[in-house]
Specification:
Blueprint: H1 3-17, H2 24-39, H3 43-47, H4 50-55, H5 59-66, H6 72-78, E1 98-102, E2 111-115, H7 117-133, E3 147-151, E4 158-160, E5 163-166, H8 168-174, E6 184-185, H9 187-191, H10 196-206, E7 212-217, H11 219-233, E8 247-249, H12 259-263, E9 271-273, E10 275-278, E11 281-285, E12 294-296, E13 302-308, E14 337-344, E15 351-361, E16 366-372, H13 386-400, E17 406-414, E18 417-425, H14 433-447, H15 449-455, E19 459-467, H16 469-478, H17 494-506
Parallel strand pairs: 1-5, 3-6, 3-7, 7-8, 8-9, 18-19
Antiparallel strand pairs: 1-2, 4-5, 10-11, 11-12, 12-16, 13-14, 14-15, 15-16, 17-18
Helix pairs in contact: 10-11, 13-14, 14-15
Pfam family, one: GH3
GO molecular function, one term: acid-amino acid ligase activity
InterPro entries: GH3, GH3_C, GH3_M
Length: 507
């Protein structure tokens, strides 16, 4: 009998039973006041009149009126870059010990996002909330005695100008509490290996010695790791190595496009739990099994605002126009897409994180990620979001019984007429490019009226080219972005797409 597991499960269930439904607006009001109070004497706080905002009758309105939107480039140029020169009290008291390196899905140069001790504590608290939510998933007691494979970036952080730098997954893993280390794999030694391929090889070699119950990481890289383990041991599926594997937390990436290819690596289905951990903070987690939506964390160091996701509010580069209207949690509506804006205990203020979301349940503050502002394809009015692309890809997978874990798309001109050019990564495509193009086109017309109108006018056609999924991984490696939190860009601009096509032709 799993005695220890039963005790742990009982503690989790008890903790879950005493958590009351929060008052979203009240919690967010408290968080905003705490953020402003803490940062009022920083340079940013003085520049944006935080003292006056705190004395105003409506804190939320005054904050929005006195503080413009910031993306990474703007806040870095005005404030964060001076932290590397030793300046303090710029957007948050003191000078952070860590910087999260994040090139995201665009650009070759890494962003350096401050990670304060307050943010690390907030991430730990949200992690505990997520663990407590496991009580809702009807997992057996012995699950809580198994280890968890956390496949992030290297925990061997680099020192630069008195700071430690690495991806947020590496920073978080390097700060794992001592009591959790016995449950954490691949362990301290292997997790410090910088080279992705070498680290995965070591994982494969040690895999049979571990009793893994849960996986955590980005789907594309998790798949590659699992394939390496299967190949190394010459087995049919990962359950032959880890028979007690029951849970996978996906790490802030839409799992839909990976579902078929991921499930092909398993002997039987496992529980998939979505989380939303970004370089800027742990924003949301899946609280219950009845939905794939995630619960925003409204009481833990992050203040959220929402800008309606409309073309007139979005610049060509994905940034917001200065007068784009924002609303707070008390004003949101279900099934409306919003650009997510955050202010945090790491000194990000009205910060455009780059994601778009939709509320699926306002009472529970549950959301889904629908895409990226930079990946919104609106050439000739098609208004095509990544969420719609993912849905169309899944329809095509089902229709042709194929796996499409990767894809990218761009609007291109052929004989002065616009087309959508798709590159689809599939290991088992059995139909022609033309059939795939017709199926994608039909699915998008059905799902998106703006796309349907565009296709009847200026958007003249759809082209598809199928390539091996490994080309997408090689592209990320070519851009010095392999493993960890790296995500493939789903929509490319004209210049980047030319680079991509040249790269594909060389493979």
């Amino acid at each position: 009998m799993a005695v220890i597991g039963s005790i742990i499960k009982g503690i989790i269930e008890l903790a879950d039973s005493v958590i009351s439904e929060e008052n979203a607006s009240k919690n967010q009001h408290i968080v905003l006041k705490q953020l402003l109070e803490k940062a009022k004497d920083t340079k940013f706080g003085k520049d944006h009149s935080f003292n006056e905002i705190l004395e105003s009758e409506n804190t939320e309105e005054a904050f929005a009126e006195n503080t413009p939107y910031y993306d990474y480039n703007l806040i870095n140029d005005k404030y964060w870059k001076y932290l590397h020169e030793g300046e303090e009290n710029l957007t948050w008291p003191g000078n952070p010990e860590y910087f999260a390196l994040s090139s995201g899905t665009t650009g070759k140069t890494s962003k350096r996002i401050p990670v304060t001790e307050a943010m690390l504590e907030a991430i730990r608290k949200t992690g505990i909330k997520q663990v407590s939510a496991l009580a809702n998933f009807d997992l057996p007691a012995d699950f809580f005695e198994k280890t968890i494979m956390m496949l992030g970036s290297s925990t061997k952080l680099k020192e630069k100008n008195g700071h430690l730098e690495g991806e947020i997954s590496g920073i978080s893993a390097s700060n794992i509490p001592f009591w959790f280390r016995g449950y954490y794999k691949p362990g301290v030694e292997i997790s410090q290996i910088d080279d992705w391929d070498e680290r995965v090889q070591k994982i494969a070699e040690e895999a049979k010695n571990w009793d893994i119950g849960a996986l955590s990481g980005i789907p594309s890289w998790m798949e590659l790791m699992i394939k390496k383990v299967i190949e190394h041991h010459g087995v049919a599926n990962i359950h032959e190595i880890w028979p007690n594997l029951q849970v996978y937390t996906t790490g802030g990436v839409a799992f839909g496009p990976y579902e078929k290819s991921f499930n092909a690596l398993l002997k039987h289905p496992i529980t998939i739990i979505d989380t939303y951990l970004a370089s800027e903070g742990f924003l949301a987690y899946q609280e219950r099994p009845e939905t794939k939506s995630m619960k925003l964390v409204l009481d833990n160091g992050i203040y959220f605002e929402f800008v309606p996701f409309k073309p007139e509010y979005i610049n060509q580069d994905g940034s917001l126009v200065p007068n784009a209207p924002s609303i707070n949690i008390s004003e949101v509506e279900e099934n409306v897409e919003y650009v997510l804006i955050i202010s945090t205990v790491s000194g990000a203020w009205r910060y455009l994180i780059g994601d778009t979301i939709k509320f699926t349940n306002i009472e529970r503050a549950e959301i889904i990620i629908t895409g990226r502002t930079k990946f919104f394809l609106n050439v000739v009015g098609s208004q095509l979001s990544v969420n719609k692309m993912n849905d169309a890809i899944q329809e095509v997978e089902e229709k042709f019984d194929m796996e499409i874990p990767e894809f990218t798309i761009a609007a291109t001109k052929i004989n002065d007429e616009y087309h959508h050019k798709w590159y689809i990564g599939s290991p088992n495509a059995k139909v022609s490019n033309e059939e795939l193009a017709d199926a994608l086109d039909a699915a998008l017309k059905e799902a998106n009226k703006n796309y349907k109108v565009a296709r009847s006018k200026a958007l003249k056609g759809v082209k598809v080219e199928v390539v091996k999924p490994e080309i997408f991984h090689a592209w990320n490696e070519h851009n010095k972005k392999k493993g960890g939190q790296v995500k493939m860009e789903r929509v490319m601009g004209e210049e980047k797409f030319k680079e991509w096509e040249a790269f594909v032709s060389e493979q």
